[in-house]
Design brief:
Among the domains are: 85 residues, Alpha-Beta Plaits, CATH 3.30.70; 84 residues, Carboxypeptidase-like, regulatory domain (Immunoglobulin-like); 299 residues, Rossmann fold (3-Layer(aba) Sandwich), CATH 3.40.50.200. It contains 15 helices and 21 strands. Helix 5 runs parallel beside helix 8 and helix 8 packs across helix 9. The chain is α/β, with parallel strands linked by helices. The longest helix has 18 residues.
Length: 729
Amino acid sequence: MTSNDKPKDGSEEPRPASPRGRQASRQAPQPVEPRPRRYMVAALPQPHPAVPGAAVPALDGDTVRRLLEDDPEVRVLRRLRGTAGNPGAQAPGFPAVVVAEMTAEHVEALRRQYPQLYFERDRLLTYSDVPQPPRRRRSAPAVVPPGVESTFAFLVRDADGTPLPGASVLVTGHGWPAQTSTGTDGRAVVTMVGETPESINGVTVRPRSGYWSVHIDRPALSTTRDNLIEPMRLSETFNGFPGRQVFGWGQQAMNLDRLPPTLRGAGVRIAVIDSGADIRHPDLRDRVHAGVDLVGGEPDGWSVDAAYHGSHCAAVVSGADDGRGVVGFAVEAEVHVCKIFPGGRFSDLIEALDYCVEQRIDVVNLSLASRHHSPLVAAKIEQAREAGVACVVAAGNDGGPVGFPGILPGVLTVAAVGKSDAFPPGTAHEAEIRGPVTGDGFFSPRFTCHGPEIDVCAPGVAVLSAVPPDGYAALDGTSMAAPHVAGLAALVLAHHGDFRGLFSGRDARRVDHLFHIIRSSCVPLNLGDLHRTGAGMPNALRALAPALAQITPEPVEADTLLGQLTAEMTGAGLLVPAGGGPDGDSGHTGRGGKTGPGAQPGMTPQAAYGAGATANGPVPGGLVTGGRRGRATSTGGASPAGQGGAPGGTGTRGKRGGTAADRPYATGPGGGRTPGGAADDAPMAPRTANGMPAGGIGPSGGEQAAMAWLREEMRAAGLLGEDPADPTE
């Protein structure tokens, strides 16, 4: 039971908390009995169905509440107020709802007595990253002797011997899995009934933050000594992290890092309905402006996140652009948090959506799902849509059909995709790879829910983001994919001209047009099943093309541009810096100097080069002025996904097609971004590992390569117009 069980109107005294320890030990034991079920009860709209031949009086919300409060077999918990329908909207008003506990048998009796009442189970909602790698289908052992059990002790520490407390340890065998967490000494003990060391299928360890997960198939476990597991630090993959800011691989895949720093989502309000957001975190401290705790009712309870889930989602949406850690999509949007987890139910979601309507929220991120349909929640989501509130919903993580509310037509439903070079081998992320895999490494993970209701797909494997109190973790789930799309939706609302004109009103047309723009911006992914990818992956450059066309480059002084150009070419290895040479320090291997940043585990060579760049290139500001977040220096060889493939459909569910994206993405800071055409355009000229056009042998070839690379970079930065002689333009 949560504190949400007590009435919010004070009609019943809260139950005193049962202290642990000596006082609790004096209490007599109680037999375990089934819990009463929780229901939402509302008066049906008029005309309501009546028993044939009988006159049934109409009921309002106050009457329903008094009726239930006077019933000794009903415990009233709280009441959700009714709301009127929006003027001119098709959706009717929302009735007052009484949340109460009673038995299923008593509900049937009340239904017969009061046919004008509507009863609906107030079910639990689920949120999570992926709890465990998929279990292989193996036949059970022929005979398991009764009483057989195995105890495994684990020691989880890093390579330096530092124990990792709070790490989750999951052991799967032929029977039920067992899960525990490590103590302060990094140790954990798991006892499994009916299992032997030979029957264990896998071990997964997930540290709380700062480290990659570990997954071992068919582990050789000992029952007589500690089983040592040493996760890899995130900083071993992302050079200088978290002291240096990085773009997540998903943000690069959606071309967020190619947007000019003037597009930051100012003026848009985003709500994250989740487990709260820890505002102590540097990436959230100045980004989350307000919230409400619908579980505990504490004034600041929304700023506490014991589950780590809401903070991770909030930082993907709007993490601070402060030069360290991670950066979100809409870094200047106003972020609100509605805390409904742990213990969130349909009634809490209804209250959270009421908050969003009242606060004039523009985009709601719903990283939650249920296997059960709720007509009341569906009505509330439709009412929010009519009020101009756009709901972006995660598809679900159990690998089956799309969950609720992702199946509703008025939301944008997001599935997850992964990328094989976005994480090191041997992690739990690797266990989620499901074929086919594109040439760029994209795959549809095993856990993502799928079906004709999927609108788009977004990065949802090994997503790096903030977790309490000041750490970072790489998590999996459609819960991580939805914030990518919610953040992009905020940018579109803030900067796309359509929402300052024809679609400026807060109504359903505004929401539908926003979803249409996002679907139309998608680059299709050919992963064998359109029900797993929808229209494809949204692309920030396509979605914001009208806004980008209106940007006027700032004037740049010749000396400033020359200095930036020199630094860019030096960082690319085209020029030797002053003092360089055979005995100088060029920063590049093979030039007699110190070795530059090399490839890190789980990173491509392009990412290793990008690790030496700032968010805007190898020098502060790069070729883009105006802020921290800008276009990264080109380090990749293929055309960007934003330019590849055909545009997605306009949202017709279950009838989507297209070609695969044809561009690899690197993890880590920076990332490869070169101007390019559609998938069927003439191919770009050959390029080196650093993303420059490959020139001939000798100085003349290097000069030609440098000039061609310079023209591309300056044109992509808006400093040069299009070249009419260039067939790829």
